Amino acid sequence: MKRICFLMLLLLTGSLLWGQNDEIEEIKQALAEAETASERMILRYELAEAFLRVDADEAENYGKQAYNNANELNNNSMAAQAAFIVAKAYERQRNDRNTEVWLRTTLNHAKRAGDSDLIMTSVEQRSRLAVKDRNYRRAYEINQEAFNYFSQNGTSISDLERRYEQQRQQLDRDKRSLQQEKDQLEFQVRNLRLETDQLSTDKTQLEERTSQLSEANKAKEEEIQTKTDELATIAEEKEAAERKAQQRAREVDQLSEEVAKEQLIAQEAENEKIAAELKAKEQENYLFAAAGTAGILLLLALLLYSRFAAKRRTARSLEEKNRMIEEERQRSDELLLNILPAPIAEELKVKGKAQAKQYEETTVLFSDFKNFTSIAEQLSPEELVEELDKCFKGFDFIISQYEDLEKIKTIGDAYMCASGLSDRKGLPNNMVKAALEMQAFLEEQKQERIRLGKPFFEARIGIHTGPVVAGVVGVKKFAYDIWGDTVNTAARVEANCEPGKVNISETTYGLIKYAFQCTHRGKVEAKNKGLIDMYYVEREIVGAAV
């Protein structure tokens, strides 16, 4: 039994080390592709954390690099955390002297950053080292220094205890408030159940409107097919015109040669006649010869002009048809780019198909309007479509300002876009910025609609980061789409968002936490996903490097 337990422990340790190595390689790859000093600082800090469990020397090396980056950026908070990692690495190496040096460095930066937790942690570690060396006076001085710091900054132990008690009482009040909200929500759920029949009716009406939109989309696709057929017809007409022009040129050349021969024969006969009557009618024959020569020249001029005019008409016709073909080709390209990303559209034109690809770190955004059905009842179909078009055009304009964002599709009143659909890895900062701009845009629209006394849209926005598969499906009605558990999770994060907010998963938060101020919501129950840590994005941190 002991041997079995030992073997299981070895297997568990090996799997943990394997997973740790994969994490380290991913961070190293991201570090190699990082473009800014801020990104390199954060990634080196994460490498130091990862190596701390397996290689203290590497943890020390990357921790010092992160510390130097933080000093260059004047970021005392990150400098304190990086110095603490270096101190932990020296502690793993049993190097007490350097551990003490880097703990003092941690304390100095933590005081500048006002990080009370890190101040207390570094003081505790330094005091423990002093006790280990039996230098009890030094341990007392270290704790006294921390006590003086907190006292001078208006904080004492009694203040901390008082604040703890206040926070505990506040938590009790919040708990009671949450219970009241829970009771209210249960009451609302009961009311919502009474509205099920009404929602079924609304669903039927929405399906009818969706069918109308589908018919309009079908008509547009038929128009595209008609234009394609017209392009094929124009190409055939162009080839026929070219063949006809070549035949016409050969006929003109042949006609010119035959006429010239006939004129030459006639001229010879006329010359013989003139020679016979030369003595009797010299003057008259001279006039006839001049008239014949002029006629020949006139006839040749007419033939040459006719040939020139025919060629010019043919050239103009071909030029006009070429212009029409080029215009239709440009229109077809524009329609294709409205449906597919540029690289996918180019691959379809070159190869006739697009290969599906998997991307390991894609950020997916979902948005959905609150009470869309009830608002739709208050608007005519024309007003509803016009308001939706205005909102979605605004969303399209916002994401077009960021090169790494790609619109995927709209489904009814839902809007979906993604970033990271390329071989180059990057942070989801632009996606979070775009989400905040979308909410700001809807807030402006809301104020204007309130001023006019009309109903307005409020949106929930959810963001999650993870692996997806992307590709083109269909032949005639083809579409570019993405699939995977990441898409489903992003939809669940959006469903658990409050209107007017931007809700992100813990995975996305880990990638943007140094660039945006966020509020932790705790673990939230998501349908078919269990408990997920979620955060509300409040604002971008001023001066944070992207």
Cα-based radius of gyration, to the nearest Å = 40 Å
Please provide the ordered H/E string of secondary-structure elements.
HHHHHHHHHHHEHHEEHEEHEHEE
Mean pLDDT across residues: 81
Helix content: over 70%
Q: What is the CA–CA distance across the termini?
A: 54 Å
DSSP summary: helix tally: 16
Give your account of this protein's structure.
By secondary structure, this protein is of the alpha+beta class. The protein folds into 3 domains: 18-155, Serine Threonine Protein Phosphatase 5, Tetratricopeptide repeat (Alpha Horseshoe), CATH 1.25.40.10; 223-339; 355-540, Nucleotide cyclase, GGDEF domain (Alpha-Beta Plaits). The chain has helices at residues 2-33, 37-51, 56-72, 76-92, 96-113, 116-132, 136-152, 157-194, 196-276, 282-339, 342-351, 372-378, 381-400, 429-452, 485-495, 506-512; strands at residues 357-369, 405-411, 414-419, 459-473, 479-483, 502-505, 516-526, 530-540. Strands 1, 2, 3, 4, 5, 6, 7 and 8 form an 8-stranded mixed sheet that branches. A hairpin with a 5-residue loop joins strand 4 (459-473) and strand 5 (479-483). Helix 2 runs parallel beside helix 4 (76-92). The longest helix is centred in the middle third of the chain and has 81 residues, at 196-276.
Quick description:
This protein is α+β, with helices and mostly antiparallel strands and 546 residues long. The protein is built from 16 helices and 8 strands.
Topology record:
Elements (H helix, E strand, L loop, with lengths): L1 H32 L3 H15 L4 H17 L3 H17 L3 H18 L2 H17 L3 H17 L4 H38 L1 H81 L5 H58 L2 H10 L5 E13 L2 H7 L2 H20 L4 E7 L2 E6 L9 H24 L6 E15 L5 E5 L1 H11 L6 E4 H7 L3 E11 L3 E11 L6
Parallel strand pairs: 4-6
Antiparallel strand pairs: 1-3, 1-4, 2-3, 4-5, 6-8, 7-8
